[in-house]
C-alpha cells in the first residue's frame, strides 16, 4: 500500500512546527498556491510504520552479503554515521565564515591531504558529488589544459570497451567525441588498437585500473607513454582504487587526473542510490584548473579557495561543497584506518576475491580470465550454462536472492557475455564466501534439473519477477488518486 | 584489524586454496617499479579516539544562531526522519538494480516522485540529481535537447538567480556550446526586469530560467515570464524552493500553460545544513519531455502473479545502457536524501509544509520590519518577498557580520562578493526555527551596534 | 544461528578502544581471570548484521498493530529518543554536583510537578524503576505510615481477583498477607465481600481503576469510605491511568498512594521488556515516607532530596535515580502533550476501544461486560468458540500473528475464561481497527471450517508454534559450545 | 492533534457506530462528582519547541571531563550499539509474550544469558533486573529462599560495599524480616576485615555478600570469603563489575567451589551514564538455584517442525502466574539495556573488554601515582585496586571538587557523606576514555590548587 492510500484529509496534527493562525501574505494573489499539493495526510506513527516496513523489503549490507562488482558493498561503519550527525556538524551553515569555527574545514583539509597521499597526485578537490561528476570535472580539466595551451584540435577521448558507462557519457558532456578501444583476450587494453587511434586529435584516455574486468592493466606504463607522447592526458577512474590502496598509486602510474569514489573505497553509505562523493586529484600541471571550493591552510588558519584564489578553475560543480556530510564520513573512516588500515583494504579485498575465484573455478564455473590474478573482483561467465540449460545470468541472479544473497553485477562489463562481476570486499568472512560457493553450486544443479525453478525466480521475496518491459511500455511514474496499487 | 574479519587460520587456509605463499603474491601482476612505499599517513585511530576528535571539532564549530539562507535553510527536522532514514536497510543498500530485493527503496522513490509532481504541478519527476545547482544545469541541457523548435542553444538566465547556480550552470553546460544570456534585475524591485527580457523577443531561444523566489527572496513575475517564453517558443525552466511551494503557486500553474521543467534544491525538506551537502537536486517536467530526462526514474509495473511492484524504468536514457548517447552521465544520485525528504513530506503533509513556510515568511518579515526601524538601515528592493530579504546597512556588511558573529549570531550573508552594486548589503532569513527570543536577541545586538536603543525592540508580530 | 556460532578466535580487531601492550597488574595472580570468558569473537559487520536481522523477527509498534491489553502499546515518539540521546544528557554522571549544571534536575522537577497535577496527589517521587517497584514502594509507605502510628496489627492487603500479579506479589514483598476480593458480574468489586473482610487487620487495598476488566469501578467512593473507615489506606495501580488522564484523578477518588507506569501512559518504549518507570504519588499524610531521591527547587536552584532532608523516607530503591533516561523520555512526551494533549489520550483511547468493542459485538463476538462502557480496553471471551469449535484463545492469538497483528493479552485477567484483553490505544487509526475486525471475523470462520489452520498457527513466522513445555522440562538457558541451534 | 490520527469524519462515524453523541458521553460511568477541572499544565509544545528546550537543557549540563565512578562508569560505547538497539523492532516491542512474534528479542536475550554465565562463571543468568543495587536485594531474598540449611535470615554485608547498594537492600529486604549484619572494612586495606567476618563462625547465616572490586576500588579476599561462607553453610553472593571480569577472576572460580549467586550492575557494558539510569541489573547463579531465581528467563526449545526457537520459560516462578507466591514482584525489566549490553559484548569480545578494563586500570593507577606525588596527598588504603582508589587530600574534599568543577572537571566523589572517617577523601576513577591530555589536565589543575608546581607533571605511564 502506498502512503497516499493511507492519507485522510484533516489527519495531520501540524504538531511538528505548530499551526499558524490566519496567515496574511503581502504577496499578490496570483503568486499564491491555488490548492494544497496533495502530500500525504498521515499520522507520525503511520509514516514511521510505513517506512520501517518498507525498509525491511530491501537487501542491504547490514542484512545481506552483497557482492555487487564495481560497487564495493562493504561494511559502512556506524561510527561514521553517528559522528557525522553530531549537532555541531549538522547545524553548520555552508556560508559560515571561517572565523566562526574551523572544525569542519580542518576535517576537509586533512581529508584532501590523505587522499593526495593515497593517490600520489599533487592536489585534490573534494568538490565533485559522485564519481560521474568527478569524471566530468576531470575531463573538463583536460580540456582546460589543452585550451590553455591553445591545443584546440584535440576533440577525442579514448575509452576502453570495458569502461563504465559514465566514462563515455562524461566525455560527451565535456564536448568530446568518444573512441572505443578494444580489449585483448587477456583482459588488457589492445595496445596495437590504441596505437592506431592515438594522435594529435587525442585529448586523453580514460582508464580504470584495475579495470572493470577485474584484472590489473599490466601495460599501464606503456599506455601512458603512448598517450603522453601523442600529447594526450591520462584520466584515472578510481572506482576500483580499493584494490590497490597503499600498493600502487595512480599518480605513480602516470595518470594526470583522477577521481575517487569515496562511497566505494572509503565506505560511505550507498543509501539506496547515493549520495556519493567523487573527489578529483591532479598532477602538477592540472592544478590551476581544479574545481572549487577547496580548503587551504596557512599554518594558522583554514580558508576557502574560490575563483578569487584560483581564477583558472573549471568552476563550481554544486552550490556549496559537494556532498559535505559524505566527505565527513569518509574522513572519519580514513582516520580510523590510518596507513596500515588502507593497505589492508587492498590486501584483504584481493585475498577474498582470489579465494572465491579459486573456489568457484574448482566448483566448475567458467572464469572470464582464468589465467589472471583476480584483483578485488573477478568475472564468471555463464555462457555455457545459458546455452546448454537455457538459464541465463539474470535467472541465476534472481535465484540467488531466494538464498539470501544479493546478486553480483550482471551483464557488465558489456564485452563479456552472460557475465557476473563478483566483488566480495574485505569485510566479509571466509564462511560467507564458502556459503556463497554452496549457493552457486546449488543453483547450477537446479539449472540442470529444475530449470523452471531458476527461470521463474525469485520465489521468496516481497514480489516475484517484475515485468520491466511493461514498466516502460505502460509508463507509470507517479501515483494518481484512485489507481490501485 | 579494523573492519576485517580474517583470523590467522582463515588467511592461511585461503592462501593455500589459492596456491600462493602470502598476500603480497596476489599483487604480482603489478609491475614492481610501480609499487609504492608505505603511505605517509598517520596510524589509525581507535573508534574511541575518533569519537573524541570529532566531538572536539563539532564543539569548535559550535551552535550558531543562524539567520543565513542563500540556498541552504535551517528548518525543523522531525526526529523520526533520520531515525528511520539511517536504518541499515535504507542506509547500506545500493541503487536498486535488483528490483525484487529493493522494493523498499523503489516504492519509496515512486512515492517521492509522486510527491514532487504534486508539489510542483508537473507530470513526472526523476529520483534525484546531486543538488539544486547541478539540477538546473541538467535542466538546461535537457531543454536544449527537448526544444525541437530551437537550434540556438541560447538560454536566458536572470541575474536574480543564485550566483552559485549561475556559476555551476556555466561550468557544466558551456562545454557543449550552450550560451547563457544574462537578464538583469530591476534595481528597484530586485526581480527580473521584464523589459530586458522582452528585448529578446523574436530571437531563437532554447529556454528561459525563472527562479521563484529569487536569490534576494523576491517574488518574480513568473506568470508573465512563462507566457513570454512560450510565446517565443522557448521552454520555461522554473527553479523553486520546495518549501516555498507550501505557499507559492506551483510552477505547473504559472502563466497560461505552466512551466515545462521544474528543478531546485530539496534540502529544505528535512535535510540538515551540514556545511552544504549532501543535499538533493530534484527535477520534474511535463510528460512529453520524459525521455529527455536525466537520472533514475522509477516506474510501477506488475510481477509474474500480476501483483504491483516497482522498478527502474526508461533506463535506455541512462549511461549504463546508452553510454555516450545518454541524457546525462549521472549514476550515483542522492538516494538517502530522497529517503529523508520523502519521510519529511509524509510527516509534515500539506499543512506542515504550509505552516513551516508561513512561519518562515512571518519571522523574516517581522525581522526585516524591526531592522529597518533602525535609522540608516533599509530594504533595498520594494517587491514582495518570501523568507529572505536584502538589507542595506549604514556601513560595512563584513564588519557587521563579524561583530554579530562574535556573539555567535550568523546575521546574514554579505552580497558584495557577487553583486558589487550591493555594497554594505546583507541577505537575511529567519525560518520557523526562530522564536521571538531569537529575533529579540538579533535585534538587541544589532541595535547596540548601530547605537539605536529604541530599535532594540523587536517589532510586535503581526 | 547464534552469535557464538559465528565466533572465531582471533577475529576481533580490538578496534574500539585499541589494544594494550603487555599489561602488568599489581594484583595478585589469585584474583586474576584464568581464561577468557568466551564472549563472541566476531567482526563489527557480523554483529551489526546478526542483530539487525534478529530485530526483523520481532513484532513491534513501529511495524505492527499491537493491541496488548493493559500494556498500552502506542506510538513511542521518535523525538523522545533522539532528544534523550543528546550528548549533554547521556554523558552526565549521576553524582554530578548540582552546581555543575541544572538542566537534568530542572527536567525532573518539572516532571514531578506535571505528574502531581495529573494524578491529584500531593507529592511525587520518580525513584521507582517500574510499576512493580512503584507498588513495592507504595505498600512500603503504607506500612511505614501504620508503623509511625504504632498501628502494627495491620497485616493484610486486600486485592481484587482481577488485579495484576504484581499487586499481590508486591504486598508479599512488603511482608503483608494478601486477601483476594471477588468481582461481581458487572465487573465491579463485590462490595459485600469487601465489607466482610475489611477490618482492623486491614493495612490497605490495592485497586486499578479502570480495572483490568476494562471497566471503571463505579463504587470507588464507597470503597474508599469503607476502607478508610476501617483505618486502611487505598493504593492505586496506575497501569490504566491513560484511560482517565485529565478526566478524573486518583487523588480525587480518595487514593492515598499511587504508582504510574510511564512506559504505558507516557509512552516510553517497552524495549522488548523494559525499562519502564514507576513514579509514586502520595497524599499529604504519606509525604514523609516517599522514596528518595527527589528534586527540590527553592526558586533559584534545584537540589536533591535525600535521607538528610527526608529522614523518614522508606529509602532508596536503586543505586541512583531509577530509570532516569526513561523519565527523560516521559518528560519530553508530557511537554509535547500539554494539558489538552493529556486529556486527548483518555478521550481517543476510549473512543477507539468503544468503537472496536461495538464492531466486534456486531460481528458476533462475546463481550465479557457487554452492558458496560469500555474504557481504554475491553474483554472478549471465546468461551463458546472454545467449547463448540475446539479452538481456544491461544490458538486465536497465534493465528492473528499470521495476519500481521500482534495478539491482545490472553488469559488475563484470570477470572474471565478464554479471554482476550484488547487495548487499541489512541494512536491507531480507524482503518486499522476496521482491518482488525476483519481479521477476527476471518479467524472465526476458519475456526469453524478449518480449525487445524488455527490450532496449528502461526504458519508464516520465523518459527511455528513453540513447545513451551519442553522449554521447562529440558531446561536450556545458556548455549554450550557444540550444541546445535 | 499530536499523535492522534482521527479526522473529524472518523470521530463522527465512530461515535455513531457506538451510539453516543460525543466523546464525553463515553465517560458517563464516572461519577460526575469525581470529574476534574482542566489540568493546570502548560499547553503542549510543538516538536520544534521541545527540540530547542532540550538542547538548551543539555547544553547547560555540558560535557564534563569525568573522573567519577562509584558505581557508574564512563566507558567508550561503540556507535553501532545504539544505532541497532534503537531500531524500532527492538525499541518499540513489548515483553516477548508471543514467542513466535518475538524471536528477535528472545534469541538476543538467550545470547545475553549465555554471555553473562560465561563472564561470571555461573550456569544460569536471568534476563535482567532493574539495576545493580536492586539486583543485590533480589539476590539476598533469593539466598534466603535457597539456603535450606539456614533459618536465620541473617545476611553478612561488608561496609566496603557501595553504600547505596546497602541502602537499597535495606529498603527492600527488611520488610521481610531479613537482617543485615555489617562487616567492617580494615582501615589499613580498605577491604573486608577477615577477622571480623570470621568472628561470625558457627552462627546461622543465610548468605555472605562479597563485592569485587569493592566500593573503594579495592580487591577483596574473595577466595577466603567464599570458602568461609561455604564452611559456615552460608551462600556466597558476589557483587561484581562486569567490566572488571575482563581482568579479574570469575566468581564461579572463587575459592574452592565458587560463588553461588552473582549479581551486579551491567551499565559498564555499553550503557551511557545518563544521570544514573536506565541501567541493568544482572543476576546469575548455579544451576541448583534456578527455580529460586527472580525475573524473566529465556529457554531454548523447538517448534512444531522441530526447529529451534526461544521462549520465556520457568514462568511458574513469576508474578503473572504465581502471584503472591512468586519469587519476586518484578514484571517490566530492562530489556532495551540488555539489547545494548549484548551487542556491546559481541562487538568488544573478550579482547575488547579486557582492553577497556586494562586501560581503565592503567589510567587510574597512573593518575593515582601522579596525585600522590603532591605533598599531603596520599592513598588511604594499601590494598591492590582495580580502576578506582580513595585519595586523601590536605583539605576539604568538597572545596576541592568545587574548584575542579569550575574548570569543568568532575574530579571525583567526596566520601564523607557515607564514611565520616573518610573526611577530606575523594574516590577517583579514570577509565579507558581518558587520554594522556585528560590526565595532564587533571594534574595541572590539581597541582595549581595545592601549590605543587612539580606535581603538575603527570607521571609517565608504566
Ligand atoms: C567503474 C566505475 N566508474 C564510474 C562509476 C560512476 O561513479 P558514480 O556512481 O559515483 O557516479 C562507477 C560506479 O557506479 C563505476 O563502477
Ligand atoms: C495492571 C498492571 N499493574 C501493574 C503492572 C506492573 O507494572 P510494571 O510492568 O511496570 O512493573 C502492569 C504491567 O505490567 C499492569 O498491567
Put the structure in a nutshell.
The complex is a heterotetramer, with two copies of chain A (485 residues) and two copies of chain B (462 residues). Chain A has helices at residues 44-55, 78-84, 87-90, 103-119, 131-148, 166-173, 191-197, 220-229, 250-253, 262-265, 324-362, 383-389, 393-402, 430-449, 451-455, 468-473, and strands at residues 123-125, 156-160, 177-181, 202-208, 233-238, 257-260, 280-282, 294-297, 302-305, 366-367, 378-381, 409-410, 419-422. Chain A is an alpha/beta fold.
Your description of this structure?
The complex is a heterotetramer, with 2 copies of chain A (485 residues) and 2 copies of chain B (462 residues). Chain A has helices spanning 44-55, 78-84, 87-90, 103-119, 131-148, 166-173, 191-197, 220-229, 250-253, 262-265, 324-362, 383-389, 393-402, 430-449, 451-455, 468-473, and strands at 123-125, 156-160, 177-181, 202-208, 233-238, 257-260, 280-282, 294-297, 302-305, 366-367, 378-381, 409-410, 419-422. In chain A, strand 12 (409-410) and strand 13 form a beta hairpin. In chain A, 37% of the residues lie in helices and 11% in strands. Chain A has 16 helices and 13 strands. The longest helix of chain A is centred in the C-terminal third of the chain and has 39 residues, at 324-362. Chain B is an alpha/beta fold. Classes of the chains: A alpha/beta (485), B alpha/beta (462). The interface between C and D is large, with 202 and 204 residues. Bound molecules: pyridoxal-5'-phosphate (2 copies). Residues 70, 130-132, 164, 166, 208, 212, 237, 239, 261, 276, 278 of chain C line the site of one pyridoxal-5'-phosphate (PLP).
Amino acid at each position: 500500500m502506498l502512503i497516499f492510500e493511507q492519507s485522510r484529509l484533516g489527519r495531520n496534527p501540524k504538531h511538528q512546527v505548530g499551526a499558524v493562525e490566519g496567515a496574511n501574505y503581502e504577496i499578490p494573489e496570483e503568486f499564491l498556491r491555488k490548492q494544497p499539493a496533495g502530500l500525504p495526510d498521515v499520522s507520525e506513527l503511520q509514516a514511521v510504520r510505513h517506512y520501517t516496513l518498507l525498509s525491511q523489503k530491501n537487501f542491504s549490507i547490514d542484512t545481506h552479503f552483497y557482492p555487487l562488482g564495481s560497487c564495493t558493498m562493504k561494511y559502512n561503519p556506524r561510527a561514521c554515521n553517528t559522528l557525522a550527525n553530531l549537532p555541531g556538524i549538522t547545524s553548520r551553515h555552508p556560508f559560515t565564515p571561517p572565523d566562526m569555527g574551523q572544525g569542519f574545514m580542518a576535517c576537509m583539509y586533512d581529508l584532501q591531504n590523505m587522499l593526495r597521499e593515497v593517490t600520489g597526485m599533487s592536489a585534490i578537490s573534494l568538490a565533485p558529488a559522485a564519481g560521474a561528476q568527478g569524471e566530468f570535472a576531470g575531463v573538463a580539466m583536460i580540456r582546460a589544459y589543452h585550451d590553455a595551451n591553445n591545443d584546440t584540435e584535440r576533440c577525442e577521448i579514448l575509452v576502453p570497451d570495458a569502461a563504465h558507462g559514465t566514462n563515455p557519457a562524461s566525455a560527451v558532456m565535456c564536448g568530446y567525441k568518444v573512441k572505443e578501444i578494444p580489449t585483448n583476450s587477456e583482459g588488457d587494453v589492445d595496445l596495437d588498437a590504441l596505437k592506431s587511434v592515438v594522435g594529435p586529435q587525442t585529448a586523453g584516455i580514460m582508464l580504470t585500473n584495475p579495470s572493470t574486468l577485474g584484472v590489473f592493466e599490466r601495460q599501464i606504463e606503456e599506455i601512458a607513454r603512448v598517450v603522453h607522447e601523442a600529447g594526450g592526458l591520462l584520466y584515472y577512474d578510481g572506482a576500483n582504487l580499493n584494490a590497490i590502496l597503499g600498493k600502487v598509486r595512480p599518480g605513480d602510474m602516470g595518470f594526470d587526473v583522477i577521481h575517487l569514489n569515496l562511497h566505494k573505497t572509503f565506505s560511505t553509505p550507498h543509501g539506496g542510490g547515493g549520495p556519493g562523493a567523487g573527489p578529483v586529484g591532479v598532477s602538477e600541471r592540472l592544478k590551476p584548473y581544479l574545481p572549487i571550493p577547496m580548503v587551504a591552510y596557512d599554518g594558522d588558519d583554514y580558508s576557502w579557495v574560490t575563483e578569487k584564489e584560483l581564477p583558472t578553475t573549471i568552476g563550481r560543480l554544486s552550490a556549496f561543497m559537494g556532498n559535505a556530510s559524505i566527505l565527513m564520513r569518509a574522513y572519519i573512516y580514513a582516520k580510523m584506518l590510518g596507513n596500515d588500515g588502507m593497505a589492508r583494504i587492498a590486501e584483504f579485498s584481493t585475498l577474498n576475491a582470489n579465494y572465491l575465484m579459486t573456489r568457484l573455478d574448482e566448483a566448475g564455473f567458467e572464469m572470464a580470465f582464468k589465467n589472471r590474478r583476480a584483483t578485488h573482483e573477478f568475472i564468471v561467465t555463464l555462457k555455457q550454462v545459458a546455452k546448454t540449460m537455457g538459464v541465463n545470468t539474470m535467472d541465476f541472479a534472481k535465484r540467488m536472492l531466494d538464498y539470501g544473497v544479493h546478486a553480483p553485477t550482471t551483464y557488465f562489463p558489456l564485452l563479456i557475455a552472460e557475465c557476473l562481476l563478483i566483488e566480495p570486499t574485505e569485510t566479509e568472512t571466509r564462511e560467507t564466501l564458502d556459503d556463497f560457493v554452496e549457493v552457486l553450486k546449488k543453483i547450477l544443479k537446479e539449472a540442470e534439473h529444475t530449470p523452471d525453478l531458476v527461470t521463474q525466480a525469485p520465489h521468496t521475496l516481497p514480489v516475484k519477477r517484475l515485468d520491466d518491459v511493461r514498466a516502460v511500455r505502460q509508463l507509470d511514474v507517479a501515483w494518481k488518486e484512485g489507481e490501485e496499487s | 584489524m579494523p573492519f576485517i574479519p580474517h583470523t590467522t587460520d582463515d588467511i592461511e587456509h585461503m592462501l593455500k586454496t589459492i596456491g600462493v605463499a602470502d598476500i603480497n603474491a596476489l599483487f604480482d601482476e603489478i609491475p614492481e617499479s610501480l609499487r609504492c612505499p608505505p603511505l605517509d599517513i598517520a596510524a589509525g585511530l581507535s573508534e574511541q579516539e575518533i569519537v573524541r576528535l570529532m566531538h572536539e571539532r563539532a564543539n569548535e564549530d559550535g551552535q550558531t544562531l543562524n539567520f543565513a539562507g542563500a540556498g541552504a535553510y535551517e528548518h525543523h527536522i522531525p526526529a523520526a526522519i533520520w531515525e528511520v532514514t539511517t536504518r541499515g536497510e535504507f542506509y547500506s543498500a545500493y541503487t536498486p538494480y535488483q528490483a525484487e530485493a529493493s522494493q523498499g527503496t523503489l516504492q519509496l522513490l515512486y512515492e517521492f516522485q509522486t510527491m514532487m509532481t504534486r508539489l510542483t504541478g508537473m507530470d513526472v519527476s526523476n529520483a534525484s540529481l546531486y543538488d539544486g545547482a547541478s539540477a538546473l544545469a541538467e535542466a538546461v541541457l535537457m531543454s536544449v535537447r527537448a526544444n525541437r523548435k530551437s537550434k540556438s542553444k541560447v538560454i536566458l538566465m536572470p541575474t536574480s538567480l543564485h550566483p552559485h547556480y549561475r556559476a555551476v550552470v556555466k561550468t557544466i553546460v558551456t562545454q557543449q556550446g550552450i550560451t547563457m544570456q544574462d537578464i538583469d534585475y530591476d534595481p528597484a524591485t530586485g526581480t527580473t526586469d521584464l523589459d530586458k527580457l522582452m528585448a529578446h523577443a523574436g530571437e531563437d531561444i532554447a529556454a528561459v530560467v525563472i527562479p521563484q523566489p529569487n536569490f534576494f527572496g523576491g517574488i518574480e513575475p513568473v506568470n508573465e515570464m512563462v507566457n513570454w517564453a512560450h510565446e517565443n517558443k522557448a521552454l520555461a525552466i522554473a527553479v523553486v524552493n520546495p518549501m516555498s511551494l507550501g505557499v507559492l503557486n506551483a510552477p505547473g500553474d504559472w502563466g497560461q500553460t505552466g512551466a515545462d521543467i521544474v528543478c531546485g534544491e530539496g534540502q529544505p525538506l528535512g535535510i540538515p545544513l551540514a556545511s552544504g551537502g549532501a543535499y538533493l537536486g530534484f527535477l520534474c517536467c511535463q510528460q512529453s519531455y520524459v525521455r529527455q530526462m536525466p537520472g533514475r526514474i522509477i516506474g510501477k509495473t506488475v510481477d509474474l502473479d500480476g501483483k504491483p511492484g516497482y522498478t527502474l524504468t526508461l533506463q535506455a536514457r541512462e549511461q549504463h545502457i546508452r553510454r555516450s548517447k545518454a541524457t546525462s552521465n549521472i549514476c550515483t544520485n542522492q538516494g538517502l536524501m530522497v529517503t529523508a525528504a520523502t519521510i519529511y513530506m509524509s510527516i509534515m503533509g500539506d499543512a506542515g509544509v504550509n505552516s513551516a513556510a508561513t512561519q518562515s515568511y512571518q519571522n523574516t518579515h517581522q525581522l526585516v520590519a524591526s531592522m529597518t526601524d533602525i535609522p540608516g538601515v533599509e530594504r533595498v528592493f520594494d517587491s514582495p518577498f518570501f523568507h529572505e530579504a536584502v538589507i542595506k546597512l549604514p556601513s560595512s556588511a563584513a564588519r557587521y557580520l563579524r561583530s554579530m558573529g562574535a556573539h555567535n549570531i550568523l546575521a546574514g550573508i554579505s552580497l558584495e562578493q557577487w553583486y558589487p552594486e550591493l555594497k554594505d548589503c546583507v541577505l537575511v532569513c529567519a525560518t520557523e526555527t526562530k522564536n521571538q527570543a531569537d529575533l529579540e536577541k538579533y535585534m538587541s545586538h544589532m541595535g547596540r551596534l548601530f547605537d539605536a536603543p529604541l530599535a532594540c525592540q523587536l517589532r510586535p508580530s503581526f
